[in-house]
Amino acid sequence: MELINKKYYDGFEGEPEIHFIYRKGNDIEIFVIWEGYFDSIMRLILPERQGWVGLAYCYNMYTGWYNESPWMIDDLQMALKQFESIDSAKLCKESNEVLMLLCNIFKEAILNNYSVSIVRE
Length: 121
Hints:
Distance between the termini: 22 Å
Radius of gyration: 14 Å
Number of helices: 4
Oligomer: single chain
Largest sheet: 5 strands, mixed
Order of helices and strands: EEEHHEHHE
């Protein structure tokens, strides 16, 4: 079964969108968000001492989902850690809701050994 959640893309039709594809066994959930919400979240991830790593590296260096679609997130733990490091008080209400949903998706994926990939459209 395929479930698509476009709540955080509604009203932005025609604008760039990001799809998080969450594979739960035989089921697939697709979380579609406006790229602006994703950008506001990603800009709040700070580099590590050695520089950008994980999702922040791909975002800031325009690799990963920019080159390949769908792009499988290999290190869900690091991605979750980066999302959890964000000061959510700096986000608008909708971006904060998106951040919380992403954290929940990544936590469930880690606990159940599910996969998460990104598509940019």
